[in-house]
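User: Okay, second chain of the day. Same drill as before: sequence in, structure tokens out.
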Amino acid sequence: MGAFGCMPLLLLIDDEPAQKRLVSALAARAGWRTIYASELNTALATLGTRDGMQLDAVLVDHWNPQIKPVDTIRQIRERRPKLPILVLTSQNDVLDAVDAMRAGANDYLAKPIAPDRFLAALNAVLDRSEEHSGELRPLSEKLSAPLAFNEIVGGAPQFLAALAIAAKAARTRVPVLIEGESGVGKEVIAQAIHAASPRHRNRLIAVNCGAIPTNLVESELFGHERGAFTGAFERQIGKFIDADMGTIFLDEVSELPLEAQVKLLRVLQDGEVQPLGARMPVRIDARIIAATNKVLEQEVAAGRFREDLYYRLNVMHVAVPPLRERAGDIPALARHLLARLSSQHGLKSLSITNEALGLLMQHDWPGNVRQLQNVLFRAAVLCEGDFLTPADFPQIAAQARTHSPEMPTMQEGGDHAEGGAITLYEQTGHIRQLAEIEADVIRLAIGHYRGRMTEVARRLGIGRSTLYRKLTELGIDNVA
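Assistant: Same drill. Structure tokens below.
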């Protein structure tokens, strides 16, 4: 909280009026007030004023290609060493992200700002001890290429059930509603549905409904004609028309105001869009995938979402479980994410020890897969060795010591049942190869007994020499 118990204060360094309005509105949701500086020198001067004295965070919008974020961060750090610094930049600008983190940025967000991610970052600033802050959320808002269904990592039964429904939905053109907590991978699944659909050669248009100012929602989604309202100097093609013959993904659909919900219902019923100021509707053929981190049925009961629209959107329902309900997927997810991160420019390839995986499995992950990805990114950026250990996750380790002194059993890979069991079948239904099952058992034992190879051998009923021979034959090391 800001000085004297006042509202926390955010300094935004940005020269774009629209971005200022959006950041201010989102920050206000979390109880923050925002002050502005249009360029670095003004911001540095602000740090010495009364407002600067009580600042709780700085958000740097990297809009000027002539000025690197690292230079801005370093100059702010010289004046205010402990002030949290958030950096905003274009998607997938990983090299600048790495440099900014090493220069001292606490968090890294991609444009366009996703409200839940931004609010989580502000919450982390206010309370570093809470689970959401564990590590301030950096960087990897999006990894480059979308994943096909067979590339999505996860073996928990309820997660596989969700993927099965999504894969079936991909072959149809009916609307799909994806529900799940923030960070579980709803957009990843939406991308996979589009990629597996007959529309995959056409565009997927993603819209974050919660990030659009209320007075601009209808214009953004459905378009407007020139002169349709004050300030409409040019004709605008709406997102639905833009997605014609393709797919439109409405993230945070629960945030749509009721007036826009009426228009969306009309699109679903009639296949027509009425741009603001237009005399005639425009026929479109856009497949709709909607997502929400709320339980939409409860929103209907509370009167915040139209019941008729809910049933129109919920033709096929995909419920994505939170990561805490599929902790056994974490080892495979961690390795998969590290492999994807290492493919980004500026990051090296890293392994991760079984001890570190056990630590990650113990965490509740309130931010789900996105938080795991960001924690791994931060650890990878700052790691000076060739593999990640528990020491690379200090905040997670501190919380683990607070909640429980014992590590959980490490479950290896994404194709096993939860609770430490090893699955005998592949997702295709075929029996797994004996060598794969044996390798999983040995890896699980190494993780469970924290790399104590004598104990591993004893518990497996084999000699140490036999164990080491098998490690060589199966390509296993105590570093995963």
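The longest strand covers residues 287-292.

User: Thanks, on to the next one.
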